[in-house]
Design brief:
Number of helices: 5
Radius of gyration: 16 Å
Number of strands: 2
Helix content: 55-70%
Oligomer: single chain
Largest sheet: 2 strands, parallel
Order of helices and strands: HHHEHEH
Distance between the termini: 46 Å
Strand content: under 5%
Length: 101
């Protein structure tokens, strides 16, 4: 027996996509860090810096209450507060990856 507030898997998918409609612009300190990574000429150094940004500078902390259990925070907010959960850290990393092409 299954219980759900969704009438179909497609309804669930649409709901989940809406949760990830988060402001992904980089501002402040994160924008500066991304610009610094983008300015590196050595591709290995660029990749290492992008990985370092999220793995070493943003701690994993899962506060799984309310809508934060489903919706990631904006990348710049995550970097400024220096912590995020399993959704926040990849969202914080994505501007770096986009900068690397």
């Amino acid at each position: 027996m299954e219980f759900s507030e969704f009438t179909s898997v497609e309804d669930l998918r649409r709901w989940a996509l809406d949760q990830y409609a988060v402001d992904r612009r980089t501002t402040g300190t994160l924008a500066e860090r991304v610009a610094g990574i983008k300015a590196l000429t050595d591709p290995i150094a660029r990749i290492d810096s992008a990985v370092h940004l999220v793995q070493r500078e943003v701690r994993y902390l899962g506060l799984e209450g309310g809508i934060s259990a489903y919706r990631p925070h904006p990348p710049s907010d995550v970097y400024d507060q220096r912590f995020g959960d399993c959704k926040d850290k990849p969202f914080c990393w994505s501007p770096c990856l986009r900068a690397l092409g």
